[in-house]
Amino acid sequence: MKISYLLLLVALVACNTQTTTIPEVFWGHHYAFAKDIAYGDESQQKMDIWFQGQWIGEPNYFKSDTKLHPTLIYIHGGGWMGGSKDGIMPFILAYLECGYNVVTLDYRVGESSAPAAVDDCMKALFWLTKEGTSYNIDLQHLIISGESAGGHLALITGLLNSIPGSHPYYAGDKLKINAIVNWFGVTDIKGIDQFYTKRGEEKNFASVWVGDKSAMDSISENFSPMAKITANSPPVISIHGQKDSVVPYEQAVQLHELLKKNRIRNDLVTIPEGRHLGFTGEEFQEIYSRIFSFIEN
C-alpha cells in the first residue's frame, strides 16, 4: 500500500495560564493521513483517510495498527455547489480524539449535477467495502455524518444502504452504518425548492442543483431522505437550530416525526437560538455530548 503521510501537528499555545488547561493525555500523534485517494475515475471522486497507528522513525516512519477501528465517514456541505473535504476539520476532531478512524469525501458538485453527489457518496462506501480494511476500517462499525448538503448526503447514503437493491452501489450487505449524524441537513429536496421559491430568493440551491425543473419531482422522490425511511433504517441524530434560514428547522422536525412513526431510534438536538452552523461553545459541548451518548447506546 503506497501512501503519502502527513504528520498531524497539534500546537498548544498557553495564551492565558488562568484559562488554559493542558490535557493529561495527548493524542494527535496516534494518526497518519492518506490524502486524495481515488475511489472513482472522476477528478472529484477523492477521499482522505485518517487512520491510527504509531510513529516509529526511519525508514518507514509510521506503523499502522493491526486491529480494526470504528470509523466516521464525513461528507462536506456547500449546497451541492461547492465545498471541500479540506475544510471540515472541526467536525472530525472529536472522533479522532475518541479513537475513530475518519474518512472524508469529495464528490461532484455544480449546476444541474443532481444526483451525481449521491451516486459518488454511494460509490465511496462501495469502494470502502473492498479497500477499507487496508486502512483498518471496521466495516461493521461505521458512523456517517455531514453538514447542510453534506447532512443530506449522509442521510440519503445511510438510508439507501439499508434498502437492498436501492442503488447500483448498494453496499448494505457488506457494511453496517450504526448511526447517521445529521448536521442541519436537507431532508426534503422539493420542500427546500418550495421554501426558497416562496421567499422569492434568487439563489435557490435546490433548483440550481436539479437544473431541469421538470426533474424536481423525480429527484426529490428518489433522493430525499424523507422518502427513504423504512423499518430497517439506521438510527439518526440531527442537530438543527430553530433560527436556521438556509435549511429550515421544520425539515428536521418532519424527518424525526417520520423516524418515530417507523420506530427508528432517533434524537433531535434542537438549538433554540441556533443558526446555520451558528452555535456557541457551550452549545457545541452539549451537542457532542448528545452525539456520543447516542452512538454509545
Question: How do the helices and strands line up, and which of them pair or pack?
Answer:
Elements: E1 31-38, E2 46-57, E3 61-64, E4 69-75, H1 89-97, E5 101-105, H2 116-131, E6 137-147, H3 149-160, E7 177-183, H4 189-199, H5 205-210, H6 216-223, E8 236-241, H7 249-261, E9 266-271, H8 281-296
Parallel strand pairs: 4-5, 4-6, 6-7, 7-8, 8-9
Antiparallel strand pairs: 1-2, 2-3, 2-5
* Average pLDDT reading: 91
Major beta sheet summary? 9 strands, mixed
Quickly name the level 1 CATH class: Alpha Beta
Compute the number of helices.
Answer: 8
Q: Please identify which CATH superfamily we are dealing with.
A: Alpha/Beta hydrolase fold, catalytic domain
Which shape, going by the Cα principal axes?
globular
From the 3D structure, determine the CATH topology.
Rossmann fold
Low-pLDDT runs of 5+ residues are 1-19
Identify the CATH architecture. Answer: 3-Layer(aba) Sandwich
Rg from Cα: 19 Å
Order of helices and strands: EEEEHEHEHEHHHEHEH
- Helix and strand composition category: alpha/beta
Number of DSSP E strands: 9
The number of domains is 1
| Residues in helices, as a percent range | 25-40%
Q: Tell me what portion of residues adopts beta-strand conformation.
A: 15-25%
Cα distance, first to last residue?
35 Å
